[in-house]
Specification:
The longest helix has 30 residues, at 137-166. This protein is elongated. The chain has helices spanning 2-22, 34-51, 54-62, 67-90, 118-134, 137-166, 168-176; strands spanning 29-32, 98-100. Helix 4 (67-90) runs antiparallel to helix 5 (118-134). A two-stranded antiparallel ribbon has the order 1-2. 71% of the residues lie in helices and 4% in strands. It has a single domain (2-176), classed as Four Helix Bundle (Hemerythrin (Met), subunit A), CATH 1.20.120.1630. Keywords: Membrane, Methyltransferase, Transferase, Transmembrane, Transmembrane helix.
Length: 181
Amino acid sequence: MRYLFWLSVVAWWIMDFYVLVLRKGSYSKILDKKSKLVVVVLILIGVILAVAPENFRTVWRTREFGAFQIFGTFTVLFGVIIRLLAILNLGEHFSGDIVIGPEKKLVQRGLYKKIRHPSYTGEIISFIGLGLVFQHIPSSIFISVFPFLAFLYRAILEEKNLHREFGDEFIEYKKRTRMFI
């Protein structure tokens, strides 16, 4: 089970590295770039604070991979799958930046039919899964709360831009959907 955990985490990192760093798209309008930096900084703060306590590292190395870790592993995997499906659902429209594509279309199919930010939802779920795997209360809080705040900030900023770009169409979409699960 420990291998499944690490396989899930590595797949998550590779997927995010590819879509956020390597993949380039043709976008007609980049609405925001700085929020990506804010998200990365908040996530790094959460990770550093989570792994900083000496007793966390001692507990992590010696603890058996028990029920919480198994449940956490499946939670991480579930989050990674949701994020992957969201990325695939958007296809060429997916970007690490807040952008509007050349055809300026508000995607409302697949996961986006019910959730406005399924990609961020997948990330949040994965970080909560890490917190469950860690099973160290301060570390679990840091690894869950800081990324949640990062993606909440990003979603709020993105929604302001979407409202500005799509007006009433976005307002109607917002009424029918949830921000996250």
